[in-house]
Amino acid sequence: MTITINLFATLAWLVTWLVIGIRLRGRLQTRQPMHRNLLVTIWLVALAMHGWTILHAISQHPGVVINFAAAGSIVMWLCSLLLFITMLTRPLETLGIFVVPFTLTAMLMPLLESGHSAVIDLKNGLGVHIFISLLAYSILTLAALQALLLALQNKHLHNHHPGGLIRTLPPLLDMEALLFKLILLGVILLSFGLLSGALYVDNLFSQHLVHKTILSLVAWVTFGILLIGHWRYGWRGRIAIRWTLSGFFLLMLAFFGSKFVLEFLVTRS
Q: Whose CA, among 27, 73, 120, 134, lies 20 to 30 Å from 253?
């Protein structure tokens, strides 16, 4: 049953990616992209099946297992869900061309052999901390992908040679406005994630958590400086892109880096 669901989820994501490509091609040729209802339907199917595989992978009585592979799958599932919701009101299918392959890869990761995985008891508010943190990581991951797309758009526009995909994007100013909205929301959630961690996680600065805590705080400061710089000094363009990617790198190093070291290096040494 599990293999069947994974197979159908894989096919659903592949079809989603194909339909996005067809819609973008139609937008370039006729400015009237078709297959919107098909895209919405198949995307929902992919999300549902992918979500089922996540629940199956992490469910452990009486707690859950969120290892390196499962965490990547959850983050990309949330990214795809957030992009889907945003896409309903904004023409952002182009971002899906990049997000869906990452989501598909992340979904298949738990099928591979992983390292040590501890069962997590979600009582005493720890579940709230984990959920908020994963949601913050997902939004800021989407912001980083948006920044990469913005960098590509910026480069092509400055060279006066906009490529095919670039011409399907919203105007540059709209893309930048969306980027800062994503960062602001991500920073708010990251703040709650850090606060809930201080409340519900025992000894955030213990040996196995100190790197994750410090890097997360540095990432939070990095994104905070970017928001202040944008509000106070009008930072945008390349400056915004560099700060966004720097903050994202620190955050992913904090979360996935620490998990990778603990699960694949420390436990096997």
A: 120
Is the domain of 189 the same as that of 75?
Answer: no
Q: What is the DSSP letter of 65?
A: E
Q: Is the same domain home to 66 and 131?
A: no
What digits encode the pLDDT tens for the residues 92-120?
888 899 899 999 999 888 776 554 555 66
- Summarize the confidence of residues 131-144 as an average pLDDT: 93
Give percent helix, percent strand, percent coil of the chain, each to the nearest 5: 80, 0, 20
Based on the fold, state whether residues 174 and 211 are members of the same structural domain: yes
pLDDT in tens, 167-197: 777 788 888 999 999 999 999 999 999 998 8
Neighbours of 151 (CB within 10 A): 17
Q: H or E segment at 246?
A: helix 237-252
Q: Which residues contact 153 (CB under 8 A, 6 or more apart)?
A: 162, 166, 169, 172, 175
Distance CA(205)–CA(227), nearest Å, equals 27
